[in-house]
UniProtKB/TrEMBL annotation:
Record Gene3D superfamilies: 1.20.1050.10, Glutaredoxin
Origin species: Microvirga brassicacearum
Residues annotated as domain GST N-terminal: 1-81
Domain GST C-terminal: 87-204
EC number annotated for this UniProt entry: 2.5.1.18
InterPro entries (UniProt xref): Glutathione-S-Trfase_C-like, Glutathione-S-Trfase_C_sf, Glutathione_S-Trfase, Glutathione_S-Trfase_N, GST_C, Thioredoxin-like_sf
The organism's taxonomic lineage, starting at the top: Bacteria, Pseudomonadati, Pseudomonadota, Alphaproteobacteria, Hyphomicrobiales
Protein name: Glutathione transferase GstA
Length: 204
């Protein structure tokens, strides 16, 4: 299977999950402005939505949406523990976090990157983001990861989106639990590998 991705974009989440799960995936970069892949293909022919992440399966089918991809990838390696088994109460906790990250964080951050988003709306989005970050900070008290001691696909997604605080100049240093969490996730071997593959590791 092949993951179409753009360095630092939300496609970093399935990239991390694929590595954490030990899956044999290939990767191809996408220029989101030109809608071209690194091999020169018209990206809209692969995913008519024109956005990453996009996963092309070995049978040619194409799967999109971060939330679907991270679950699909984790389910290819059930022993990885990245997603608890179907029907277990723990799985719904992970899904609950995926919903929160997608709708409360990801979709609030996205318009901040767009130059045509009115400044007044950006201010509202940032205020709302701070409310959600305060909640997240409390939820992380005494926990290594979102659902407890175990790293799950929700952590790959949260880490990916929370990284955007820096380029968007949203100061999260006051959220001590989030700051510690980001460091913890960033030190994971496969997370470092994904960051390195995407050219995002800062030189020491
Ligand atoms: N609903 C999609 C949103 C994906 C998304 O926002 N992708 C961004 C990068 S993080 C993108 O490719 N934007 C380019 C565009 O929309 O043209 C998902 O959850 O996967």
């Amino acid at each position: 299977m092949k993951l179409f991705h753009t360095p630092g974009a939300c496609s970093l989440a399935p990239h991390i999950v694929a590595l954490e799960a030990g899956l044999p995936a290939t990767y191809e970069k996408v220029d989101l402005r030109a809608k071209r892949t690194a091999t020169g293909a018209d990206f809209t022919q692969i995913n008519p939505k024109g956005y990453v992440p996009t996963l092309q399966l070995d049978n040619g089918e194409v799967l999109t949406e971060v939330s679907a991809l991270i679950q699909y990838l984790a389910d290819q390696a059930p022993k990885s523990g990245l997603l608890p088994e179907v029907g277990s109460a723990d799985r719904y906790r992970v899904l609950e976090w995926i919903g929160f990250i997608s709708t409360e964080l990801h979709m609030r951050f996205s318009p901040l990157f767009k130059p045509d988003t009115p400044e007044a709306y950006k201010t509202i989005l940032i205020a709302n983001l701070h409310r959600r970050l305060a909640y997240l900070d409390e939820a992380l008290a005494g926990r290594s990861y979102l659902t407890g001691d175990r790293f799950t696909v929700a952590d790959a997604y949260a880490f990916t989106i929370l990284r955007w605080s820096e380029p968007m100049k949203i100061d999260i240093s006051g959220y001590k639990n989030i700051a510690a969490y980001m460091n913890r996730v960033a030190q994971r071997e496969q997370v470092r590998q994904a960051l390195q593959d995407e050219g995002l590791l800062k030189a020491a």
